[in-house]
Amino acid sequence: MKDLTNRVAIVTGSSSGVGAATARLLAAQGCHVVINYNRNSSGAKQVASDCEVAGAEALVLRANVAIDEDCVALAQAANDKWGRVDVLVNNAGTTKFVDHDNLEGLSAADFQHIYGVNVVGAYQMTRAVSPSMHSQEEGGVVVNVASTAGITGIGSCVAYAASKGAMVTMTLSLARALGPKLRINAVCPGFIEGDWLKEGYGDERYAKLMASNQNNAPLGVTATPETVAEAILHFISGPQVVTGETLVVDGGRHLTMTPLSRR
Fold first, then answer.
1. Known catalytic residues?
2. Which of 92, 154, 200, 205 could serve as a FRET partner for 131 with CA atoms 20 to 30 Å apart?
């Protein structure tokens, strides 16, 4: 799948951030894209417009990936319009910003909501596109957007870190189960510059966290939506013999986290 011209991708949570950057990058490669949003319709429409300017076709659909019927509808819409699904990027995610030592800050409902989107949603989307990908001669590729939170135990809250760890494990399980037709890999970004973390942490803490990550990363940088999108594209159009792998995208920050430091 090195040539993405006229291929079809579904990118969940693609109205902003990493999802939007990924959709734009795929469109620039000639790939038609399903732009998915849950609340940000104006953002989704702008991303679709950007993709069309790049020469690709785009379809904008509202769906909550935690709801199985919505996942099935996303896959069906792509098949109805283009007759195929070649790429799935499981990017939709949610969290709650709670310090890890605040055990009263998370309820069972919080865990269930976060897992429902981050883990169950990715599973349901993979299941929804699997028949189409299996019917195609070249199969298809799934990229799960996890997080360094899932391999280091840091991040916005305990439930988020646990959900991303589960996503990494699920990547291994599904890569083993769904080959040879499907290749399934994961990217694990660290701190990503942008509005999501800025809104969650507030301007002051966001700036401190970004500076800390940059100062402690061997490359002296933090990830951006665009650099994460490049890593996702690597798994889609790069080496075709890779599955069940996890790529850390954090400027090497994880290399300085033994023993783990609190943030």
1. 160
2. 92
With contact defined as beta carbons under 8 Å apart, do 144 and 87 qualify?
Answer: no
User: 8-247 has which fold?
Assistant: Rossmann fold (3.40.50)
CB 34 within 8 A of CB 77: yes
Query: Could you give phi then psi for residue 78, rounded to 5 degrees?
Result: -65, -40
Phi-psi region of 72 (alpha: psi -120 to 50; beta: other; left: phi over 0): alpha
Predicted pLDDT of residue 160: 98
Tell me the average confidence (pLDDT) per consecutive run of 10 residues in the chain, 263 residues long.
93 98 98 97 98 98 98 98 98 97 98 98 98 97 98 96 98 98 98 91 93 94 97 96 97 80 42
- In eight-state DSSP terms, residue 255 is G
pTM of the model: 0.95
Name the residue type at position 235: F
> How far is residue 36's CA from residue 123's CA, in Å, rounded to a whole number?
16
Domain ranges of the chain: 8-247
52: which 2 tokens? 């069309």
